[in-house]
Amino acid sequence: MSDYNFAYLDEQTKRMIRRAILKGLAIPGYQVPFASREMPMPYGWGTGGVQVSAATLTPDDTFKVIDQGADDTTNAVSIRKFFEKTAGVATTEEASAASVIQTRHRIPEDELREDQILVYQVPIPEPLRFLEPSEVETRKMHSLEEYGLMHVKLYEDIAKHGAIATSYAYPVKVEGRYVMDPSPIPKFDNPKMEMAGIQLFGAGREQRIYALPPYCQVVSLDFEDFPFEASKADHACDMCGATDSYLDEVIMDDAGNRMFVCSDTDYCASRRKAGHVGAQGTPFEETAA
Amino acid sequence: MTPLLKVENISKFYGNRIGCENVNFDLYSGEVMGIVGESGSGKSTLLNCLAGFLTPETGEVRFEMRDGEMRDTVTMSEPERRMLSRTDWAFVHQHARDGLRMNVSAGGNVGERLMAVGARHYGNIRAEAVDWLGRVEISEERVDDRPTQFSGGMQQRLQIARNLVTGPRLVFMDEPTGGLDVSVQARLLDLLRGLVREMGLSAIIVTHDLAVVRLLADRLMVMKDGHVVETGLTDQVLDDPQHAYTQLLVSSVLQV
Amino acid sequence: MIEIRNLSKTFTLHNQGGAVIPVMHGAELVVAPGECVALTGASGAGKSTLMRMIYGNYLAAGGSIVVDGVDVVQSEPREILALRRDVLGYVSQFLRVVPRVPTVDVVAEPLLAVGAESEAARAKARELLARLNIPERLWSLSPTSFSGGEQQRVNIARGFAHDYPAMLLDEPTASLDATNRETVLNLIEEAKARGAAIVGIFHDEAARARVCDHEIDVSIYTPGLTAGAA
User: How many Å lie between the alpha carbon of A237 and the closest alpha carbon of chain B?
Assistant: First the structure.
């Protein structure tokens, strides 16, 4: 433990990142450039989120990491262990017990509180990127609030698929000003972004940090005649029976059998602990999990 | 009657070289002005200065805003100027791919300007796009095709539709028929003439093709080495050119 | 209606050693409403040049050409264009049109330019085309492929579509058969009757005698023995 500075990064770097975070909070949705560091993991594995977490954690925090809602994937386990080792902070899989939650591609089902911080890993922070490749031009479009192009993307969706087919990384407008990429969370999670907790977004490769302060207005872009819908699989969780959670489809065998289960493993487990059982589920046992 | 556009003393230099120097003219509502000259004469530089793509070293480009006020577009703030170029101005590029989004459908291309000024009803945007495709003689069935699947003439017509959908008052055109087959050119010219008359458009057309200006432009400005050498009624300049360079230009045209 | 004072014209050929050719000097002409004046003189005397100067197609070197209160010599392009649109018609010897445009629209265009209803303009165009014996099956085609005589008649129809208060006619009856010649002369007489001031060039002496009130020999304004730019 004493081999590392607290939370891996040196203090100067953490201060630099904190300044970027504070600026991001002051201008919700605005992408603040920061000097992203090399981290002991490849780009695409959450280097941006890890740096933001490192600058956010204090020794008293309790840390949770989820990857597509799950606490037990390689990515989540590695990052959790990274901070156990470099910061010595307490970790948990329980969303309600965590003070800082780093996430990849999901927002926990349980509502976050004012004393919690959600840190997103972001691959591509620029929502306009796929329509306008020039960074110079996209920055200008942000500064001049020229967001017509965003709707061109949605128009193309409807023209091609008859509906807005964008189902994740669905663009939002923050406080009536900046259009923001919410990271590749399912659009089911978009409405949850108006929350009590602080939300921080870190893009390591692209060297950008942006943020949403608590209770910030976050509106998903849409058309009057094709309004935004926070959709999910029309099913209940086969393990815990929840009808209000975002579901993963799991293929069970070669015969085409499949089941739908909560993508948020903590949410599912806590419901099963409380006695809920889904169509294909078994009653909760302490040893299972 | 006040002019729609008042250009005063526009100069643009590239280092020591003259792009264009001391250009002055007034353009009135409904007028179509042609700018001719050989490559390097400064006609494109001038057009880019007028349209806000280049910042001239000296001079003013005053435009009559919708409230009737004359505003200098060179010194106006960038958001205002960009707003102008999405609403009251249009720019038709020589190469359609410079003026179109090639990876966006025809409908999306036409709809973009509408969405940029706040249209948020998909059905209405699409109906408007289809209507405009019709006006430029592109069938409704092609509304979801990308411009990459269009011929050169169709791409150019699509570019015109995309530009005119917001009802601009001033259109800048840079060699709008350049690179097109002669038969396609004729069709495009006819289309442009009709739109200019129906919409009461004012236009500034840069071209080296004297036949194009004879058919489209009311007035002509002849440029050489960055300077305006002659101006006047189009047919007068072409039929009774006064300046040596214009006489050379006119006499160099092959007769068909 | 048309009043020309002390008009002069020179051509400067910059690309032929800067030769300056004076072609007209001190020209005077007055045409009242309802009057038709013929320009005469040998070929090269400057009949067409004078006519083109009145239309603003050639730039005068000096003097004045006032048409309906507008001095063509001093006016801005847009003022001349407005004059051409509303007041001054011109039937040249050659038809110049945008390819692909149907004949009926070519003829209707001057009416559309002064704000006529599209259908009313086309109706007038069809009436004129019929009077000038252009077969109906040709009306929807572009005149670019027509014979010379047909193009000439389309040009005349176009020139008479709008009731211009002043008109310039350059050889309107040339290359026409007797029937069509008669029609054109009737059109000219009708225009005079409604008060149009007309300046014309007619090689056809009988036609000239029938419709013209005066003749002006422009060679009296031609300086010396010039090389005769048309």
Answer: 35
